[in-house]
Amino acid sequence: MAESIPVIISPATTVFSTSSIPLSHLRPFRQPISSLSCYAVAGAGAGAASSSTTPTPTPIKNKKKKNRYEMENLTTWLLKQEQAGHIDAELTIVLSSISLACKQIASLLQRSSIINITGTQGTMNIQGEDQKKLDVISNELFCNCLRSTGRTGIIASEEEDVPVAVEETDSGNYIVVFDPIDGSANIDISLTTGSIFGIYAPDEQCLVDYDEDTLDQAKEKCIVSVCQPGSNLLAAGYCLYSSSVVFTISIGNGVHAFTLDPAYGEFVLTHEDIKIPKSGRIYSFNEGNYDLFDPKLQNYLDHLRKPGGAAGKPYSGRYIGCLVGEIHRMLLYGGVYGNPDNVKAKTGNLRLLYECAPMSYLVEQAGGKATDGVQRILDIQPKQVHQRTPIFIGSPDEIDKLMAYLA
User: Do you know which PANTHER family this protein is assigned to (predicted)?
Assistant: First the structure.
């Protein structure tokens, strides 16, 4: 332990100064001992000369100070949640495996240009979108990590045509839905990307035999089991890949964010129990589609762009092109994000099962709201794995204002 340094206050203290003020005009520093912090007084300890005239400092009430080296990593936090009965041991393993996949993806993204994994794969996914090389690689990483746990029954991904029943599973029956790389168009220019995931308990266990006679029937069974409303989610989260790598999660008791410490290779708790601001001055829409939007929505956007307003400040328009980035900013700063339907996209652009539902779950856990313009996102019953939906999500006051325009 470091040696205590005595605190000595004496009228004979000599004051040195390089200013032009005569020394005779300077007074020694005289601070009453009672005004010193208890920390300084305690520091005097045995090293300071005892004095019968020195008043006894008033002790500070017991208050635990956080050690600057004290960190809580994701593994420890998950184990505490398990001990508290919020999750079981199997879900702890599944969540840990997802965090491992996110670490691997973060590493690949940082080196993507160096190891030549940028650009397109030359294939298209089930939605008819060009796949990036990292879309395919990230999907494999997620699938491999989830298979290795032995706790996952079904995997449904943006990059898979149909849900995959995990053949290697022992006793696990969790359904994990995910978008391995959200905002993949940003990869080649090193902008914000992310991963999104949600975890469900299936209506019934879906373990299948992979022979040709039962494959189609097994796929149908899996699809029925996967397509659940977001209100059934057991856990959801995302991983943001940007200037920092941030793993944000909810298991139904609030939203918590962990930042990857590259020195240790661990996700460390940095944002505990996030609460979205009730209102915000940031809106995020792809206004390139403004002329394709519903007139009611156009009126709402016109209102946001007007200078002044009740708070005396205009709204700021921000659009990243990555749902994870939009939601992360909104959780911390508030505001509203919209990806509405339009003349060319009658059902919107985002997928309900593995994009909108997990993000809506997170935002609601933080005190926000999410709607398709008519009903709550988490109440929508998916009928297809890759079903799309419009979405408006954000601070509760901002969503209420938007709904007033759409009514």
Answer: FRUCTOSE-1,6-BISPHOSPHATASE-RELATED (PTHR11556), FRUCTOSE-BISPHOSPHATASE (PTHR11556:SF18)
Residue type, 362: L
Structure tokens at 269: 């708790």
Phi/psi at 93 (5° precision): -65, -45
- Nearest to residue 166, comparing CAs of 144, 185, 184, 137? 144
Domains of the chain by residue range = 1-48, 74-271, 282-406
Answering whether pTM is above 0.70, one says yes
Orientation of helix 295-305 relative to helix 396-406, angle to 10°: 130
CATH topology of domain 282-406: D-Maltodextrin-Binding Protein; domain 2 (3.40.190)
Count CB-CB contacts under 10 A for residue 36: 16
Quick check: 57 and 38 in contact, CB under 8 A? yes
Q: Is the CB of residue 218 less than 8 Å from the CB of residue 179?
A: no
C-alpha span between 95 and 246 (Å, rounded): 15
What's the CATH number for 74-271? 3.30.540.10
